[in-house]
Amino acid sequence: MQFSDYLQFSKKITYIFLFFVIRYKWREVFSGEKESFMFKIGDYVIHGSNGACRVEKIGPLSGVGTSGEKEYYTLTTCYSNSTIYSPVDSTKVMLRPILTKPEAEKLIAEMKNIPELGEIEEKHREQEYRDRMKTGDCKDLVRLLKTIQTRRKTRLAMGKKSTANDEKFFRLAEDGLFGELAISLGMTRDEVREYVLKNVDGL
User: What digits encode the pLDDT tens for the residues 107-140?
Assistant: First the structure.
């Protein structure tokens, strides 16, 4: 990845974080009212590279090492049943609503036109993959999948197997993308995967 591409990517992540921070704080700043929570119990959200989660509780944590003052979202991951505690005012990890059904349908229709990632230096490849996973952006997951799929085909033509890192991040990107779309569309991940792979070249 060239330095200019890295700067653009860094700016993109910063703008996304700022959007959600501003969205979270607007009522307190402009109306003087005590801030209400961005999400409510029962909402489905995307938590960085952890993917789709459900908001189970909102409030202070109890236990050793907690002050009882800081507010947290208690999240349960939708597919691994793990628990995540995310500060409601955190900007360190992306936390956003899952796509609506119309947004999911629009994304699928646009997938064929979403480009691969740009040229990546091999020594930076794993970090680039990780960074794309952390954005929580479905289009970044599509780019990642297309990039790895092209690398698979290139290596196969050379008589080589796909690398372990490529396979690992391909599975993670598929799980993240199809997991979110499944909730948005009311389908299973396997149903979404079958539909997308049938209708979108390059994945």
Answer: 999 999 999 998 899 999 999 999 999 988 999 9
Contact at 8 Å (CB) between 108 and 129?
no
SS3 at position 153: helix
The residues, any chain, with a CB within 8 Å of residue 49's CB and separated by 6 or more, are 130, 133, 134, 136, 172, 176
**Please, are residues 184 and 99 in contact by the beta-carbon 8 Å criterion?**
yes
Nearest CA among 166, 167, 80, 88 for reference residue 128: 166
Task: Sketch out the chain's domains with CATH numbers.
Answer: 37-97 (2.40.10.170), 99-199 (1.20.58)
Q: Roughly what angle, to the nearest 10 degrees, separates helices 101-110 and 164-185?
A: 140
User: Strand 83-87 vs strand 71-77: parallel, antiparallel, or unpaired?
Assistant: antiparallel
Widest CA span of the chain, in angstroms?
65
Question: Model pTM?
Answer: 0.77
- Angle subtended at Cα 40 by Cα 38 and Cα 134, rounded to the nearest 5 degrees: 60
